[in-house]
Amino acid sequence: MLVWRSLGSRGCVQLQNDWRLEAVANACRNLLTASLEGCKFEQTTIHFIISRNPRLAQLNISGLKTAGNRTCRLISKSCLLLESLNVSWCSGMDARGVKKIIEECKNLRELRACEVTRFNEPGPMQAIFKSNKLEVLHLGACESIDDAAIAIMVEGVDPEVDPFTNKPKAPPRKLVDLDLSRCSNLTDQALRSLAGNVPNLEALQLGGCVSLTDSGLTTLLPTLGKLTHLDLEECSELTDTTLLALARGPAAKKLEHVQCSYCENMGDQGMTEIIRKCPGLRNLEMDNSDSPNDLYGGLEANFGITARVSDQVLGEAAHAVRHRLSPPNSPPVPGSCSPRVALRLVVYDCAGITWPGVRDILARNADSTPSTFKPELIQLKCFYGWQQTVDEHMKRVLRGDRDSANRLESKWAEHMMLSEDTTLGRRRRRRQALWDDGDQFIGRRRGRSGCVIC
Questions:
Q1: How far apart are CA 255 and CA 209, in angstroms?
Q2: What three-state secondary structure class fits 294?
Q3: Which of 72, 167, 344, 351 could be 379's S-S partner, Cβ–Cβ 3.0 to 4.6 Å?
Q4: Separation of alpha carbons 334 and 338, rounded Å
Q5: Which of 73, 83, 19, 84 is nearest to 51 (CA)?
């Protein structure tokens, strides 16, 4: 008889109601891990698998519409050794069912319950507080979560208040990875509740929490000394103040990933400070970080609008990568080690990023002179029309063909200058049509008809 330890049927939509339960009973009685994500099992089949595998440590039933609160109750009774559970997007259940699992499964360390409802009720969050064993907690898109729910999660219900600090007394949470993205009801008060209560946090996702401001982030970030990943995508109220607090905070040396796409009030000041002060930075995403008006070419020059992210960020990145990993005494010898990507920058749809700035990065990546050679490269994701050339250049550098990469960069520069000259010529002709001989603005000239009004 076959004895299976792991069942991975994720995405197997062909496994539906006719899947033989007898085969499951014979082969799947000692499972340690099971992933049923994307399958179309009836609730009976799901319950059959769960009830006959009491040693399950990892269970993924995300997206199963037939899984409900009855499923949660069965898990809480049958899988007491459970360590990791994913019930995200299970529309048939709510937080009351998840609460039973948290209370009964004492080994649970990882819970993913994105888009599950009724987390605004005190019961589920109080269960998380009392357990205090969760290290990974993903509650993305749980729109029911509000500031009060976060306060209960980290402080409990009616906590005792320290008379000296006037703060609730509660042991620090063990959370390492917290996802609250797209929890649209959260405000700065939720971040103030987290401040000082999650000292072990390494990854924090707040993307889509549009009500957050600098006030909340500048309170929380100084208390996160182990932070490596921060997602602030679409938090449009945030400014460079948040980035400066991050760069000057206790986690600056550990920071690896920053996502601030669509943060239209962030710009060169904050981005360059992050690059300067965070030597371990590996990924910085700042696409679409200009205001909507900045996306129309030429408005910056004509109307004084300043693009918030510009080539200055690229120049700072080139300088930082060149120096942050340099050996203390002598420069490395070309060919002594293989090139690798040290920093990835996402800068598409940033009106202030120009092709000369991108070209500087390409030239820096392919530079092979002994005094400046570095095997660490910068990978760019930029405008769609430039990306194919940028990617091909990176391929040539990674395989060590720097001469070929330099030729490609030179040809691209010639093409861009020619295109720019052509565009400039059209602009000059248009400008001449807008001004008369006496340098008086008269608007666009039109073809004259037989009748002229003087």
A1: 21
A2: helix
A3: 344
A4: 9
A5: 73
- CA distances for 390 relative to 54, 286, 421, angstroms: 52, 18, 22
Q: What token pair was written down for 276?
A: 């300067």
- In a domain, residue 62? The reply is yes
For the CA atoms of the chain, what is the radius of gyration? Answer: 28
CATH of the domain at 67: 3.80.10.10
For residue 355 the two structure tokens come to 């092709």
Which domain does 62 fall in, by range?
A: 1-107
Which pTM was predicted? 0.86
For the record, the structure tokens of 126 come out as 């109080």
In this structure, is residue 19 part of a structural domain? yes
The CA distance from 416 to 419, in Å, is: 5
Task: Output 233 or 435, whichever has higher pLDDT.
Answer: 233
- Give pLDDT, residue 53: 92
Domain annotation covers residue 227: no
Q: What angle, rounded to 10 degrees, do the helices at 268-277 and 240-247 form? A: 10
Kindly report the average pLDDT of the chain as a whole number: 84
Place of tokens 């390492």: 176
> Of 290-299, 345-354, 355-364, which range is least confident?
290-299
> What phi and psi values does residue 415 have, to the nearest 5 degrees?
-65, -45
Residue 315 phi/psi, 5° resolution?
-65, -40
Structure tokens at 132: 């205090």
Does the pLDDT at position 76 exceed 70? yes
* Structure letter (DSSP) for residue 160: P
Give the list of residues 6+ apart from residue 179 with CB closer than 8 angstroms, or none.
114, 137, 138, 139, 140, 203, 205
Burial of 405 (0-12, 13-18, 19+ CB in 10 A): buried
Q: Are 90 and 61 in contact (CB under 8 A)?
A: yes
